[in-house]
Write a structure and sequence with these properties.
Two copies of one chain form a homodimer. The first copy, chain A, is of the alpha/beta class and 408 residues long. Chain A contains 14 helices and 15 strands. The interface between A and B is large, with 71 and 70 residues.
């Protein structure tokens, strides 16, 4: 299977009317994608293993001994890959580009006659976007212990279905979910290739970059109370309209982020009862905020918390990830390889997007990322795109890096 | 079946976790309520007829001739009733109080040995709240010609199901839907009893009122465009965030309504794509505005339309109903009857809520309303309530009025 053929395979799965994708964790679409990944691993003779959160690892190791033996002997493996799920109406590249490029890299190494001296895995992380249960990188958070299994299993989707119920419905055992030191011990390094989600590479005129760090970022849930009542018969002065506080949050988020050099977004809202002629009795808004400076992000959120307090809101931090620096020696090595092997002078870019590589890095696993040029900078949208030549350049770069990592 | 027994019958149907009701047009809950109404008509020997929108009419007429014969001879009937559907998480009284009181009134008249000289109908209007398809009073609007069948059938619910599809799924024939002059010719007068949706009667210390008019009121859909993109990686200055215009609408609606002595509410919103980490590419907000003065309501909406224009929004008027004055001679007659028969000095109150009685009045059918005291003024909420004594006082009043109307 060439890169292009794999890409074609994935194109119809979970495609929405918008032209974007709706591939949410533990749904039928997710199942199709997982089966596809497993088949691609089998086709290449990779040993498929699932960890305690259901992340899929396809290992290439001809020994001596098992992958665990190698790790125990100080020769832990290299993992490459990303995720296959999407945000609602997300693009085709965010996630799948890394998985398909990783599988294509295995093919390139084989075609070049490479025999790895270290185990090599292709990985598909589950539930990276958190689109269904609200917490991003749930797959890597749980196995690294960054999120407890109790909290993960109790998360609910928009229909009130808990992750535990969704796992059961998908034929899985929720009680097996938990941190998985054994699975992580096999991973001596992780390299995630990802489409860039900004205009850094376009502006530089280069197809591939190495990541420096991930901005501090978090999600907060703002619950505004109100009192349901008739929209026609209730005097303005008698109202407790939960929507007013929400609207103030939306406008406040933009203003405070602008003042502090951060970004802040309210992209999701839930209204009760949600009738045109009923005053809202409850409005929940979700704030996403990030920025290069941790203190400024924190100050933005605190200011919004204080504003929302005037409306009686309660604010819950659903996730918080401090600045994540990728492994410097590993990142430097990737840049050196690309300079010498591919004659690519590769820039170093920070990013406002969270990734499983960031969660693994925070858990002490040497991790790095490669970004592939995005001609518009648009992502999390049907318009997300990468030129095919740049995708192939990404595979070239990943192949060069992995060949270096597994043959020394 | 006493009032209390009928009330008990209805209590569990469509009850939501909130304690309120979710009884939407052409759903399973609606079907249960329609079957219940039909059974109550049969139990009383009323002749059940459906008009071309599926509104249910249970006629009591012992002749001479048919109800149509009587109408043709200038002896058209009296109709009493209301609706059984609800807003999302609405109360138990808005609608059902009028239907149950009408059925109880038939029982009272029979117990008193009354034999009507005019046909008498109990009516259950379908889809009064417009909770599912967005247009209130759809049942009465279609049969009176205030809404074309083409427009009604093309309305869609939140899942994209059209009213035509919903009717078909409910085993009905959408092609039969249309204005129904024949059904309306039978109705010489309509009296709708309804729980009050404000604090007028509480403040006056009286259980029952007669309605004067319905404020001009309407619904407008505001569509704000944006561009989906990643909430973490897109610079503020590169964003087109559809949520900002929406938030401005919410706050603007409150401000403009306050300035102009109207009410304005944004109780429903839909966001695309609706992910926490995606900038909204489209936000739709629904505005409900009403007030005692038509020009001021219009000016409020125009000001909001102009504000929304700065955000590139398109604004669609989904419904508009001018001031509706109830029939003066009929209303005066009801007050006279209540003063002489029940020794009730009945106040006259206006209302900001739309009703099927308003649609019939606008179509030239002499119509009037009775309001029953609401101790909190709250409606469209699980807390909506009327004391049982006041409900019975409502039935007393309706019985006195109807006895007078059908025996002269």
């Amino acid at each position: 299977m060439t890169f292009d053929a794999m890409w074609q395979d994935l194109e119809p799965v979970g495609r929405a009317q918008s032209g974007g994708y709706r591939r949410f964790a533990w749904t039928g679409e997710d199942h199709t994608l997982r089966e596809w990944f497993a088949a691609e691993c089998r086709r290449r003779g990779l040993d498929l293993a699932e960890d305690r959160m259901g992340n899929q690892w396809g290992w290439w190791w001809d020994g001596p001994g098992t992958v665990d033996d190698a790790a125990a002997a100080g020769n832990s493996g290299v993992a490459i890959g990303s995720h296959l799920d999407s945000v609602p109406d997300g693009g085709a590249y965010d996630g799948p580009l890394g998985v398909v490029s990783a599988l294509a890299t295995v093919d390139r190494l084989r075609a070049a006659g490479v025999r790895p001296d270290r185990p090599l895995a292709v990985v598909n992380f589950v539930d990276e976007e958190g689109a269904r249960f609200g917490v991003a990188c749930a797959g890597s958070r749980v196995i690294t212990g960054a999120m407890t299994p109790e909290r993960a299993l109790a998360l609910t989707d928009a229909e009130g279905v808990s992750m535990a119920e969704a796992l059961t419905a998908a034929g899985r055992d929720p009680s097996a979910v938990g941190p998985d030191a054994e699975a992580l011990r096999r991973v001596g390094a992780f390299v995630e290739l990802h489409v860039e989600q900004g205009r850094g590479l376009v502006d530089l005129g280069v197809p591939v970059a190495v990541a420096s760090d991930i901005w501090p970022h978090g999600r907060w849930r703002f619950d505004f109370p109100g009192e349901a009542n008739h929209a026609g018969t209730t005097r303005l002065e008698d109202r407790q309209d939960a929507m007013l506080g929400y609207a103030d949050l939306v406008l406040g988020a933009r203003k405070e982020a602008q003042l502090r050099g951060c970004v802040a977004t309210v992209g999701k809202v839930a209204v009760t009862p949600g009738g045109v002629n009923a005053i809202p009795s409850h409005v929940t808004g979700w704030l996403d905020s990030r920025g290069p400076d941790e203190d400024e992000v924190r100050a933005t959120v605190e200011e919004l918390r204080s504003r929302a307090g005037h409306f009686g809101a309660t604010v819950t931090e659903e996730s918080w990830t401090a600045t994540t620096r990728f492994d410097q020696p590993l990142s430097d090595r990737l840049r050196d390889v690309l300079a010498s092997e591919a004659e690519l002078s590769v820039p170093v870019l920070g990013t406002g997007a969270g990734h499983d590589a960031g969660i693994l890095a925070a858990a002490g696993i040497p991790s790095a990322m490669l970004f592939v040029r995005n001609p518009t900078g648009i992502s999390h949208s049907p318009e997300e795109f990468a030129e095919r030549d740049d995708c192939h350049a990404g595979v070239d770069a990943l192949t060069a890096c992995v060949q270096d990592l597994v043959t020394r």
